[in-house]
């Protein structure tokens, strides 16, 4: 495990939240970074499940951190130990062989190009414009946009309803 950017965090028995930034030099205990680039936004523990919410700038200028960019794919590795002993950044136990998992992810995505609809050819008919509305949710690095178009009645007499859901790079039209 050479060159990993590591975060160790949790919640103590007394309810104190903690989060520390480390780096690895091999299969030994991670070394505490002199530059702490991660910010703990929240931690909770419920029914034996610890949840951490934290953030870090994409570019930290810390040589011990992985700099996130469009071409960077990283391994997210999470490990745990059954004892709460990691609040001291200088002394904590290694996870067992079974208490870890990993997944490869891309953190930063290239800018997305929005396609504009092709305008309909001009006609001599008079039509009402459909009522429309749009919603946008920002979720961490992912933006989800939902746009709806409603029209009460078309010239042919039927109802029309369409929804466009845009998630990351995929567009789904109903």
UniProtKB/TrEMBL annotation:
MF (Gene Ontology): dopamine beta-monooxygenase activity
GO annotation, cellular component aspect: extracellular space; secretory granule membrane
Ranges where the DOMON domain occurs: 1-81
A GO biological-process term: norepinephrine biosynthetic process
Pfam families found in the cross-reference section: DOMON (PF03351)
InterPro entries: DBH-like, DOH_DOMON, DOMON_domain
EC numbers on record: 1.14.17.1
PROSITE patterns in UniProt: DOMON
Keywords: Monooxygenase, Oxidoreductase
Enzyme class (EC, first level): oxidoreductase
The protein's name in its UniProt record: DBH-like monooxygenase protein 1
